[in-house]
Design brief:
This protein has about 220 residues and is mostly helical. Helices cover about 75% and strands about 0% of the residues. It has helices at about 1-25, 40-50, 55-70, 70-95, 100-120, 130-150, 160-185, 190-220.
């Protein structure tokens, strides 16, 4: 048990260091993609890249989903609802059906992370309403994802291919994060109280502080 806790502390320390290195630079839509290719594989890669390593805010969102339930099925269900939602708004923005203001989309994404992390402090299991909440937040995140593709100035004929490929890449990155977390947390599955006390609560507080900083920064700067 002591060995497992020592390992867990190392993982938490590593995660905190990674978060610290990227906290000041992390933005949902602050980077410019280079139009190197219009192949299907290129769009998949851009989807992966938008999450790992460029999408720290989206990674924290996935962490918030994972922390409330280490059940792989429940986590994947929530992640799938998130994917479905962001696919809808991603498509709407790409086809010029909606044109949300970038500044407020960024701020709302940060707020969604604050909300989920705060909920993790007071709720210890997934309730049906959380699925709906994640779907609604996914709609907002999709607007952020859209800028990664619209910045490429894609020809109309590439929109569907780009939409499908980008979403596949995003989903691959999300599932990779979930798989890695599942492997790590499985070592401590027999100690749910310790897991919540030593991992869920402190990490949720850290995420709240980071996302709150982003919220203020994105609204006022």
């Amino acid at each position: 048990c002591k060995y497992k806790l020592d390992m867990l502390k190392r993982y938490i320390l590593l995660l905190c260091l990674c978060i610290g290195m990227f906290t000041m630079q992390a933005h949902t839509i602050d980077y410019v993609l280079e139009q190197e290719s219009n192949s299907f594989g290129f769009y998949i890669w851009e989807g992966v890249r938008h999450i790992i390593p460029l999408g720290l805010d989206h990674i924290l969102f996935i962490l918030c989903i994972f922390f409330l339930s280490t059940s792989t099925k429940k986590v994947i269900l929530q992640a799938s609802m998130f994917t479905l939602a962001h696919t809808i708004t991603l498509g709407l923005v790409m086809f010029d059906i909606i044109d949300p203001p970038t500044k407020w989309v960024e701020a709302l994404i940060a707020m969604s992370i604050v909300f989920l992390a705060a909920e993790n402090l007071f709720v210890d299991k997934v309730k049906p309403g959380r699925i709906i909440l994640i779907f609604l937040f996914g709609l907002v995140h999709g607007m952020g994802f859209a800028s990664a593709l619209t910045s490429l100035n894609l020809p109309k004929v590439d929109f569907v291919k780009a939409l499908v490929g980008f979403n596949i890449g995003v989903e691959m990155a999300q599932l990779s994060i979930i798989l890695l977390l599942t492997i790590i947390i499985r070592l401590f599955k027999a100690h749910p109280i310790v897991y919540r006390k030593r991992v869920v609560i402190p990490m949720s507080i850290i995420i709240i502080l980071i996302a709150s900083y982003w919220t203020v920064e994105r609204i006022f700067f």
